[in-house]
Amino acid sequence: VPVSGAVIVTTPQDIALLDARKALKMFEKVNVPVLGIIENMSTHVCSNCGHEEHVFGEGGGERMAAQYGVPMLGSLPLDIRIREQADGGTPTVAALPGSELAARYQNIARNAAARLSLQARNKSIQFPKIVIQNT
Question: What percent of the chain shows pLDDT beyond 70?
Fold first, then answer.
């Protein structure tokens, strides 16, 4: 399957951002365009009152996107409904179609599709050479 681009998913924590940076650099090294960054668990949503807070830090994905000149595709909260719907086999956008949570997923998908549409058409037929070396 041709690789048209990569999406980097991270959490706002510094340790996760270190791994995300390594992934981004690896994709750059093998000439796979990075479409953007998604920040997962950007906030925690209380299942009782709906209060949202940044339990894992704030803005890590945004800072990384700015540092590397790639777009921030969006962010997703740590929300029990996502896990419950996934466990039940129904995606959030289908289970809660008019919700703010579904809108976040839809926005991320639109942003990624828009970035992908900017890729040169012939890029999809070029296969990057990926070599794994034991060091």
Answer: 91
What are the b/e assignments for 63-81, b being 16+ CB within 10 Å? Answer: ebbeeeebebbbbbbbbee
Q: Name the token pair of 71.
A: 């777009």
Question: Which positions of the chain have pLDDT values less than 70?
Answer: 1, 121-130
Q: pTM of the full predicted structure? A: 0.83
What distance in Å separates the CA atoms of residue 20 and residue 42, rounded to the nearest whole number? 15
What domains sit in the chain, N to C, each tagged with a CATH number?
6-121 (3.40.50.300)
Dihedral of the CA atoms 70, 91, 107, 9 (nearest 10)? -10
